[in-house]
Amino acid sequence: MPGMSEEGVESGNQSPVMPRRSTCNESTVLCDLYFSDLAEQIGAEWTQLGIRLGLNQAAIDHITEDKLTAVDRRVAMLQLWKNRSSCSDKRKMVEELCKALSSCGRGDLAGDVKETAGIS
């Protein structure tokens, strides 16, 4: 698309604001539909994010080989993290995701995730 980067974000702009859902909570953030929204905003730092979420390099490499599009790779990484997590507390999982996003330089997305989850 004209004016769009390979990553799906308009050139020259910060990441667009993610859509807000009418019923937002921790479960909203951890669902596949939200992961798709989030994946569209995550850039090349997705591998670093996966590592900070506890995935190993072999898992990242497998996702890279298996998925065709950048967004599919990012969604697969988020799903794998969620499925491998031993934490049953959804709020703690959201906080873990936010911490990892912030440590990758994506505090903007961490703020969006917190807002969507209703975490202050």
TrEMBL record:
PROSITE patterns on file: DEATH_DOMAIN
Database matches in Pfam families: Death
Region (Disordered): 1-22
Biological processes, Gene Ontology terms: signal transduction
Biased composition (Polar residues): 11-22
Domain Death intervals: 31-117
Domain of life: Eukaryota
Descriptive protein name: Death domain-containing protein
Species for this entry: Strongylocentrotus purpuratus
